[in-house]
Specification:
The chain is mainly alpha-helical. The chain has 3 helices and no strands.
Length: 76
Amino acid sequence: MSFFQRAHYLSDTTQFLQQLKDKKPDMEQKQREGRELLWDKKVDRSLWQEYRAARVPQKSYVYYSYSASDRSTPTR
């Protein structure tokens, strides 16, 4: 046993979580189902390749882009 380790010590948080899991044994299953709704999605890779191929390249400065004809010298 380590010098710094307390024998059979459980923090308040660990005790709370264990009690919660004992009261609601189906909680972890419901968490997994909720995660599947939002995050665990099946990805259609061929569709994503089509999306990437159809992208239009963005100009370097999107707020104002001028053409070469706009660069004419100002009149005095």
